[in-house]
Amino acid sequence: MPSVVVVGTQWGDEGKGKIVDLLAERADYVVRFQGGNNAGHTLVINGRKHILHLIPSGIFHEDKVCLIGNGVVVDPAVLLQEIEELEKSGLPVPPGRLYVSERAHLIMPYHKAIDLGREALKGKTRIGTTGRGIGPCYEDKVARRGIRVGELLDPETFASKLREVLEEKNFYLEKYLGREPLSFEEIYETYLRYGERLAPYVTNVSEILDRAHREGRNILFEGAQGTQLDIDHGTYPFVTSSNTVAGNACAGAGLGPTRIDFVLGVAKAYTTRVGEGPFPTELRDETGERLRECGGEYGATTGRPRRCGWLDGVILKEAARLNGLTGLAITKLDVLSGLPEILFCEAYEIEGRRLEQTPVRMADFQKLKPLYRTFRGWPESLEGVKNFEDLPQAAREYLSFVENFLGVPIVMISTGPAREAHILLRDPFAP
């Protein structure tokens, strides 16, 4: 009855959706525990691309129960649209297959308006937010003025809370951000309709998980974004607004930490980042462009081109420590095929000193020089490779170094975008 947490070890976009999809075959419950629809998981199933923003990737397995935990911030319009799109593609999503925590906070129209207004005001100093209202929603949650999913089902309570908070938000939108005020009646009526449609899905997710654990069910926790975007441990302030590390799986879903058995970190065979912020190993040359095009490195949520660079061992070591990784999944190894040589950052140099951890001050990131170890590349395609021993020798050497450098075993390797293109070295759900 293992409980497995899957987290990103870089700046997100590591290919967690595919890994979760593969592990979901062995799970009974798949849980999303943080973030909002600023995250996106891309899967290729039977040659067709699917992109999810809120619903866990396990939804593509018809016998699984998918749960959206209390740590997620929910835009009800996006959630309902995802349900509709899945059903149009022939995949029913009835209550019983999907549940939403009554304690999850709602993204409101004023959250999105504030998000966009702030970015416009900052200009060149912007954070690079997706503008979907995630940060302002988490702000209201911490300030104890948020509105939760369960309150949509009580029109009087919802009206009272909305009226109180909207007065403050409209003042801020008009007087500080120079934006148009929002209508109480329009928001109220729209969100009540959302509530009516979502009502059958709303429940106490913590109770479901507790019961599942006592019954010996396999539970898979699906993280969004990556460790370096964690609000506490990432490259602050260029981070997201929630805790992305494995420890938040418990707080964001309502299951105790003693119930977690395996933490799987997902890392690309190189590094990418979307948006602003430091990126020590970024390549602004033909190699970086090649990685972007061969890897299809464009944001699943925004479509923005991802910045690309060599694999950064410093941030991977931090991810191993912060998440307590039990195993590592390497994705997009196939993208490196054909490169004459491959570089791996094993430390930084700053003002003549060797540094083996990321600095706290943003100014220090500008001074970092990556210290690389060079590996020979491999010309062979990885298409159809199903066993580690069948990988090119140079690829095996590269992976073995990464494994030994981190002190974390590699348990999965993705060799292409399709569901079947992977090598499984150890099943995280195995006893």
From TrEMBL:
Pathway, per record: Purine metabolism; AMP biosynthesis via de novo pathway; AMP from IMP: step 1/2
- Give the residues annotated as active site: 13 (proton acceptor), 41 (proton donor), 141
SMART domains per the record?
Adenylsucc_synt (SM00788)
Q: CDD domains from the entry? A: AdSS
Which stretches are transmembrane? none
Q: Which cofactor does it need?
A: Mg(2+)
What residue stretch is flagged as signal peptide? Answer: none
Listed under catalytic activity are: IMP + L-aspartate + GTP = N(6)-(1,2-dicarboxyethyl)-AMP + GDP + phosphate + 2 H(+)
* Pfam families documented for this protein: Adenylsucc_synt
> Chief subcellular site?
cytoplasm
What GO terms are given for molecular function?
A: adenylosuccinate synthase activity; GTP binding; magnesium ion binding
Where, in this chain's numbering, is substrate bound? 300-306
On cofactor binding, the record's note says: Binds 1 Mg(2+) ion per subunit.
Q: Which GO terms describe its cellular component?
A: cytoplasm
Q: What class of enzyme is it?
A: ligase
State its location(s).
Answer: Cytoplasm
Keywords annotated in UniProt: Cytoplasm, GTP-binding, Ligase, Magnesium, Metal-binding, Nucleotide-binding, Purine biosynthesis
GO annotation (BP), single: IMP metabolic process
- Return the similarity comment: Belongs to the adenylosuccinate synthetase family.
Tell me, in a sentence or two, what this protein's role is.
Plays an important role in the de novo pathway of purine nucleotide biosynthesis. Catalyzes the first committed step in the biosynthesis of AMP from IMP.
How does this protein assemble? Homodimer.
- The protein in question is named Adenylosuccinate synthetase
